[in-house]
């Protein structure tokens, strides 16, 4: 083995591959040592390690005295311990256009495109009696030309209080499923045939329209899908994209959404590959957990996500006044 190869001194780095996350101890010029953890970008002629989304460190491979493989993402406690209210607040920026606070609640409007962007996130304390809060939702909705709607965590105080006022469920509840990102990513690097970019590109948007035909105004689509970074867009296939997905990071959480594969390309693992590629992107931004939302009645999708390690965290639903 070439003496200049990383790990030739027995450090263990000779087993490293680009895209993997490693803990590395390197000797400094004064004889002391420093430790770092990050993703390998290059092994030779110099060792280049990305430590986060914006910073890269370059090391002389001969200075490495110890190296060991690390999980693909930082670890953490079971994400199911996180309160549902906290997770919903992290999910809020992922589908957000025009908005305004109502105490701890958030009034939202997005031209009628998606329930999440066109409802009041009724989580926490609105800072006023429930009847006044309900009236504020109706006034906001009328002013923005959308149906009055509240998104509530099933079984929460806002759910019970609005129901007591006569508000009722408009359509099937949604399950929020979670996993620890390191468990989901496993040991494999990002898929070579999946592209991840933070640019909101026309080809991705065209595939999104194929997956979910809509007549939403382009400015509204951009505000909701791309207006609240950090977010990224995964895709596969060319020249026409055959699969897409979107990821949004808030705190330690990666939200996975807009997951779609063209019918003729399904059952090839493209959706999973895109989700994992977005997971690698999010890990470099400090994410520890991933969540996604799926209709509670969609048992097939729920079982598929369970096979990937996702577990139900909580459910939410939409209520509208009588």
UniProtKB/TrEMBL annotation:
Coiled-coil region(s): none
UniProt-listed SUPFAM superfamilies: Acyl-CoA N-acyltransferases (Nat)
Cross-referenced PROSITE patterns: GNAT
Highest taxon above the source species: Bacteria
Domain N-acetyltransferase: 195-322
Range of residues in the leader sequence: none
InterPro entries for this protein: Acyl_CoA_acyltransferase, GNAT_dom, Rv0428c-like_C, SH3_Rv0428c
Protein name: N-acetyltransferase domain-containing protein
């Amino acid at each position: 083995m070439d003496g200049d190869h990383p790990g030739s001194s027995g450090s263990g780095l000779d087993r490293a591959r680009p895209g993997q996350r490693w803990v590395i101890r390197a000797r400094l010029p004064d004889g002391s040592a420093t430790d770092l953890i990050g993703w390998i970008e290059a092994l030779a002629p110099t060792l280049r390690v990305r430590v986060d989304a914006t910073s890269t460190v370059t090391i002389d491979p001969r200075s490495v005295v110890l190296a060991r493989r690390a999980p693909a993402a930082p670890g953490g406690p079971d994400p199911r311990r996180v309160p549902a209210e906290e997770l919903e607040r992290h999910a809020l920026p992922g589908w957000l256009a025009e908005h305004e606070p109502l105490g701890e609640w958030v009034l939202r409007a997005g031209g009628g495109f998606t329930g999440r962007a066109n409802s009041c996130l009724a989580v926490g304390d609105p800072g006023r009696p429930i009847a006044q809060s309900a009236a504020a939702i109706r006034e906001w909705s009328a002013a923005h030309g959308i149906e009055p709607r509240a998104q509530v965590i099933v079984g929460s105080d806002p759910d019970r209080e609005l129901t007591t006022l006569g508000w009722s469920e408009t359509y099937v509840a949604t399950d929020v499923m979670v996993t620890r990102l390191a468990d989901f990513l496993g040991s494999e690097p990002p898929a070579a045939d999946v592209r991840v970019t933070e640019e909101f590109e026309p080809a991705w948007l065209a595939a999104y329209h194929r997956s979910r035909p809509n007549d939403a105004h382009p400015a509204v689509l951009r505000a909701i899908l791309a207006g609240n970074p950090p977010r990224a867009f995964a895709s596969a296939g060319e020249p026409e994209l055959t699969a897409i997905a979107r990821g949004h990071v808030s705190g330690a959480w990666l939200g996975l959404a807009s997951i779609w594969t063209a019918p003729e390309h399904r059952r090839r693992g493209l959706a999973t590959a895109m989700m994992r590629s977005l997971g690698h992107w999010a890990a470099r931004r400090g994410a520890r957990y991933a969540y996604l939302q799926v209709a509670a009645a969609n048992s097939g999708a729920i079982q598929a996500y369970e096979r990937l390690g996702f577990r139900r965290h909580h459910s939410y639903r939409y209520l509208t006044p009588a």
